[in-house]
Design brief:
The chain is α/β, with parallel strands linked by helices and 599 residues long. It is 39% helix and 19% strand. The chain is built from 24 helices and 21 strands. Strands 1, 2, 3, 4, 6, 7, 8 and 9 form an eight-stranded mixed beta sheet that branches. A seven-stranded mixed beta sheet has the order 16-15-14-17-18-21-20, sandwiched between helices.
């Protein structure tokens, strides 16, 4: 027997509902709905159908523009349907329903909204039980944040409240606020406080004491200020809560296997949860939902791009990928790269010739001596080749190779090199250097499988619209035990922590994704790669810092420029500090460096 469906409910359900005793009370349900895609999702239809079994009248109000088929469905099952302009929140929608119906003619008024899945099972027995409790209004859970109140996703008001002037006065004062916090403060909290001050008694079916007893027995930490319906959703399901908040599912902050077991025991379709939180803006790497991380970012390399860009971060802790949304169009992408450094002669310019002060010269000389002693200048040259100068040569493909400077050096070391590019100017230079070329995307070239020992992706994966597709294609092209070698900006880097949205590694809008090693490792593993070695590198921290400072100071930055004379002290300090920190931790370098083998 499931713990969340008490025995008395199973017994009472058939006895009470079949005999019509639950329906003997005249109940009105006011259901407030909103969906950012304008959809009437299956879980909402299920909620309405469940409430139809135990209630006399259903009033449905939505702040979303619904399709004709959805409206027809609602008209067939509901007694009142209203599509509002998207103003106000659930309280204003409930006010709309109450104003349209003579609610004082009902024994009970129930308020619900689309922020919850459920009822997960028939709630007739619960309604029957609570009708005899000594309270005037009640809900599933209470909350002590700001001020004590009954949470508004499911509220039931009995006859004394329904007929009272205090109840009518409250709804007359409800305004269509656009600020959600203000709605919570004035209406969700305000309703409970107003009715209690008006002399009515409130009760939460799953009170703090009841939840506390359960958590204490199961050795689960519980705090008074917790939002129980969200932070203890699984525990509430186990206790018999017929509702599950959408928010923890959307944020992927809940133990889904445990939830699945509870739903299965009650016969509630698990796919309703997946459809209920479906969002086109899911993490392209793991499929989890994200939250806005950076807003209104500018293109700091292209002076003629006036666009603003938003990045989301995956809520899945084992992923944490950052991605741009909405994704730019193909025409936009071509514009982004018109003046990109890969299309310009690789000449290093030193911007600014101001003679530095002597103390700065001395400190810089000392820092460079430390750098030489630590060996990162020597390692930087090897890292440019992704340490392939230390590997026995074979056949190598570099994806997104640009003009082929790296391939020329690798060929001199004995590698049989092939370069892939989509940029026509870069392809011309590759052919001038007699480098075999693959023109256009890999998947459109029908290349023979199992032919490369190494596939190199140097700062490429962050530029492609579908990294998983690219890595899958690379897997097919590799020989058995062949390896993919990739580098990309590291979300967890020290410089990103310091510079935030001004960090060069963001490079909006050309970087569609910013990874960390966890995301790369899990992605490669899921695609079938093995022997994955993931580290971070801090050999180019100086350049990341220099350009990030430019962006912070709202200066146009040119990626091919070298350290500025007299203006390189902070970048050099960060280079030394970053190198030492990364040497100790192996986590905070500016670049992820990953090698993975084909099994």
């Amino acid at each position: 027997m499931s713990e969340k469906t008490p025995l008395k409910y199973l017994f009472a359900k058939s006895l009470l509902v079949n005999n019509g005793r639950v329906m003997s009370m005249k109940r009105l349900v006011c259901y407030a709905h909103f969906d950012d895609k304008g959809e009437l999702k299956p879980f909402v239809k299920h909620s309405i159908a469940q409430m139809k079994e135990v209630c006399h009248t259903i009033a449905f109000v939505s702040n979303s523009i619904l399709s004709d088929s959805d409206i027809n469905y609602l008209n067939n099952i509901c007694d009142y349907v209203k599509i509002n302009d998207n103003v106000g929140y659930d309280f204003y929608m409930w006010k709309t329903a109450l104003n349209a119906i003579n609610y004082k003619g009902y024994d009970e008024v129930i308020l619900m909204n689309s922020s919850v899945f459920g009822p997960l099972y028939g709630i007739g027995p619960m309604l029957y039980e609570m009708s005899y409790r000594k309270c005037d209004f009640w809900g599933m859970t209470e909350c002590f944040q700001i001020r004590p109140h009954i949470q508004s996703y499911f509220l039931v008001f009995k006859k004394p409240v329904v007929e009272s002037d205090a109840f009518a006065l409250f709804w007359n004062c409800v305004m269509p606020y656009h600020n959600k916090h203000l709605v919570v403060l004035k209406y969700e909290i305000g309703l409970s406080q107003w009715l209690i001050e008006s002399g009515f008694m409130a009760e939460a079916y799953f009170s703090f004491v009841k939840i506390g007893d359960y958590c204490r027995k199961n050795k689960i930490k519980l705090r008074v200020k917790d939002n129980y319906s969200v932070e203890h959703a699984v525990e509430l399901l186990a206790m018999g809560n017929p509702f599950l908040k959408v928010d923890p599912i959307r944020k992927n902050s809940i133990n889904l296997p445990s939830v699945h077991a509870h739903l299965e025991a009650n016969g509630y379709p698990f796919e309703y949860l997946e459809l209920g939180v479906r969002n086109d803006n899911c993490c392209p790497i793991c499929g989890s939902h994200g939250k806005i991380y950076y807003k209104n970012l500018k293109d700091r390399l292209n002076l003629y791009n006036t666009g603003r860009y938003t990045y989301y971060r995956c809520r899945n802790r084992s992923c944490g990928t950052l991605w741009i949304y909405p994704a730019p169009s193909e025409a936009d992408i071509e514009f982004f790269y018109h003046n990109y450094y890969t299309n310009i002669e690789s000449v290093c310019h030193n911007a600014g010739s101001t003679k530095p002060l002597m103390p700065i010269v001395l400190v810089l000389s000392l820092l460079k001596l430390v750098g030489k002693m630590l060996g990162f200048y020597r390692r930087r040259r090897s890292y440019y080749l992704h340490e392939l100068d230390k590997v026995r040569p074979g056949k190598l493909l570099e994806v997104g190779c640009g003009s082929g400077d790296r391939l020329i050096k690798l060929r001199q070391l004995g590698w049989d090199v092939v370069g892939q590019e989509v940029d026509k100017n870069a392809l011309i230079k590759l052919r001038e250097n007699n480098i075999d070329t693959v023109e256009g995307p890999l998947e459109s070239n029908n290349l023979a499988c199992n032919q490369f020992d190494i596939i190199l992706l140097s700062h490429v994966i962050e530029h492609v619209t579908d990294p998983k597709k690219l890595l899958s294609e690379c897997l097919q092209l590799l020989k058995q035990n062949g390896r993919v070698v990739l580098s990309t900006p590291n979300f967890d880097s020290m410089n990103h922590f310091l510079f935030k949205k001004y960090w060069l590694g963001i490079d909006a809008p050309r970087h569609f994704f910013i990874f960390n090693n966890k995301a790369l490792t899990s992605t490669l593993s899921s695609l079938g790669y093995g022997q994955i070695k993931a580290t971070t590198v801090s050999l180019n921290t100086e350049l990341f810092a220099m350009h990030s400072i430019d962006i912070l100071l709202r200066k146009w930055t040119y990626l091919l420029s070298g350290p500025r004379i007299g203006k390189e002290l902070i970048p050099m300090l960060l280079q030394v500090a970053g190198y030492i920190i990364n040497k100790i931790t192996g986590k905070f370098g500016d670049e992820c460096f990953v090698i993975a083998a084909k099994k």
